[in-house]
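User: Predict the complex with magnesium ion.
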Amino acid sequence: MKFETIIGLEVHAQLLTESKIFAGDASSFGAEPNTHISAITLGLPGTLPRLNKRAVELAVRMGLACGCDISRHQIFDRKNYFYPDLPKGYQITQDRTPVCRGGFIPIRLKSGEVKSIRLNRIHLEEDAGKSIHAEGHDETLLDFNRAGTALIEIVTEPVLTSPEEAGAVLAEIRKMVRYLGICDGNLEEGSLRCDANVSVRPQGSGVLGKRVEVKNMNSIRHVQRAIEVEATRQIELALRGEDVVSETRLYDAAANTTRSMRIKEELNDYRYFPDPDLAPVVLSDDWLNAIRASMPALPEQVVSHLMEKYALPEYDARVLADDREVAMYFQSVCEHTPFFKSASNWLMGPVKSYLNEKGIEIGKFPLTPAQLAALVNLIEAGQVSYTAAAQKIFPAWVLQPEADPAQLANALNLLQDSSADSLGPLVDQVIREFPLKVEEYHKGKKAIVTMFMGEVMKRSKGKADPRLTQELILQRLKKS
Ligand code: ADP
Ligand code: MG
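Assistant: Here is the predicted structure with magnesium ion placed in the model:
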């Protein structure tokens, strides 16, 4: 019997608000434990939460970008449960009136296929604190700094059918939140978190299988591997005639397995009810229009812009626009060089390899856009060859970014020959060896000059300065 896997994702994104969603505490990452915990965050008696307008704005931005319906009337609900990292005993969330409904995330698969992944909703909620189980200690330590931090939860419909699709959705969400400036998209640090709901069913069956929610993945790769092993586990259960238990399982990256964390309650026992301390939120037309008008450029718009303004092929534009910061860096480079395609090649080639090798983002790349442009210009002016620049100058320069590229090239003995004394004899040689071509030139075939250029270049082993070479050739041709 053949099985198919069905996946739905729940992605939590920590919003880049200065303060928490219902309190003035800073929502900064990495502070001393329990230093951003006002009475509101702790839910002490008599305190009143107050909604952070900015959080709603950022959530609306995501909704607009995904083509969702924006709810104009929203309430916040209390989701009641006991857990040590939840100081109030309930989480404030949007159960019945998510800020966004519907919408979709476009993904592009390796096969080139483009799919629209339907969203169920995007809602606002507050984050919980953090339980810390320190190595060698029995106690659970609690840090409430994160409690009350603004989150959006992006919930897809159960429509994904492979780990590749799930990875593509997550990558697209990460790209979008970064473009929108609403979340830093850092999976490793947990500002973007993905839970994967996985079920299997016999191929062609119209009904969904029982689902398992898998948590604890902190990279796209882990999400994909977790789905893979969980689906395999469920298929093996099914083949043995056993039932899948609806539960939450934790992914163990080291062992590449999932293990049971808690059995999912079949019945909703959270006793959701509208938070009586928070007034309903009503979004005015004016405010919504203002957000619409201030939407930053989205990935697809940047792709078109790069193709139009810099005449880049679509492939280049997509690679560059995959990371908003890289696209911005590219545009800065182009302020210092007219050779756009070369700049693009440099970013997609040597620069990207360098960043991958070092495991860093373009923000930490040692060369400024102006410096990279200077290297491109040096090559285009014929002073150094591309090979020398990529293999010798670039690796040396990133180690000492304060250096001057021309001096570096000189020190590495890579500067192309630009002295008439050494080029002159080569030019003479070439003119002597091709009398027929010289004749053609005089008959009006001016383009033949490039053939002479090529010959001189070859004989100088690529070191001849093209501009000077051309000048010398023209001089000699005039005399001959
Ligand atoms: P809950 O809030 O209890 O987690 P939801 O209805 O909000 O339940 O669904 C959560 C996620 O589970 C959604 O992403 C949805 O697409 C996914 N999901 C629901 N049913 C299935 C299923 N049978 N197989 C895979 N994913 C599912
Ligand atoms: Mg859920």
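The chain has a mean pLDDT of 92.
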